[in-house]
């Protein structure tokens, strides 16, 4: 593990990262999802793709990377870009899971691999909609205490700045961003994913011209249990574009 400090909008960020196969010419950049960290991505892919340099990054506020600011997804992408310039690495392929998929798309890599990416706003279940209405009604009386009771599990226990960040990024519509992406893209999705359901994958595939969508058994973290099948699909994609 290494730490690289960068400055973005007068804020200092200490970013934690791991680099595997550093002598290889082309780089795979792995970006984890919300509430996760680089170790999850390394667990899934660290033993694969021996012909590529691997770069695993903890996004600001996750894992061992620091953050005290309120950020947007575009801020995250700008921070990652600044980080890449600082470590003098070009990300030939960006691989993003969930929230990391939105960040990866904004980086405009030559090749993009999305693993159950966020970015498509899907209708919320009735239970969630009712919870939101109840929270808004009771918010004047509860403050932070009610926030802990009603907040999504994705943001539970997070510092105030990360909760505010979560509110900014959770319901972003990235349809325009996906539609504007012009490089080869592979979309891998879990058939039983309830966080970013299969329909979201189909919509993104329809927006990214020429993209390929493949489904695998499993939920939002399908790539952990279906590692071999997912890696095989990724290898095929990297060989044919």
UniProtKB/TrEMBL annotation:
Residues 28-233 form the AB hydrolase-1 domain. This is 2-hydroxy-6-oxohepta-2,4-dienoate hydrolase. The keyword Hydrolase applies. It comes from Hydrogenimonas cancrithermarum. The keyword Hydrolase applies. One of its GO terms (molecular function) is hydrolase activity. Coiled coil: none annotated. It comes from the Bacteria.
């Amino acid at each position: 593990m290494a730490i690289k400090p960068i400055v973005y909008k007068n804020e200092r960020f200490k970013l934690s990262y791991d680099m595997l196969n550093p002598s290889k010419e082309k780089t795979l950049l792995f970006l984890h999802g919300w509430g996760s960290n680089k170790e999850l991505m390394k667990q899934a892919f660290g033993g694969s793709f021996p012909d590529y340099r691997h770069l695993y990054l903890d996004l600001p506020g996750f894992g061992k990377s620091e953050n005290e600011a309120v950020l947007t997804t575009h801020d995250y992408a700008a921070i990652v870009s600044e980080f890449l310039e600082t470590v003098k690495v070009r990300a030939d392929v960006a691989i993003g899971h969930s929230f990391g998929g939105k960040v990866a798309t904004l980086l405009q890599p030559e090749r993009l691999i999305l693993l159950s990416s966020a970015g498509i706003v899907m209708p919320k279940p009735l239970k969630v909609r009712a919870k939101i209405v109840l929270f808004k009604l009771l918010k004047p009386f509860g403050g932070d205490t009610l926030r802990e009771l009603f907040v999504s599990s994705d943001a539970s226990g997070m510092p105030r700045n990360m909760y505010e960040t979560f509110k900014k990024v959770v319901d972003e519509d990235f349809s325009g961003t996906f539609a504007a992406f012009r490089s080869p893209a592979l979309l891998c999705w879990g058939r039983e994913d309830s966080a970013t359901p299969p329909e979201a994958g189909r919509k993104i595939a329809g927006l990214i011209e020429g993209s390929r969508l493949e489904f695998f058994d499993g939920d939002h973290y399908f790539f952990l249990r279906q590692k071999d099948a997912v890696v095989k699909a990724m290898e095929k994609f990297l060989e044919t574009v």
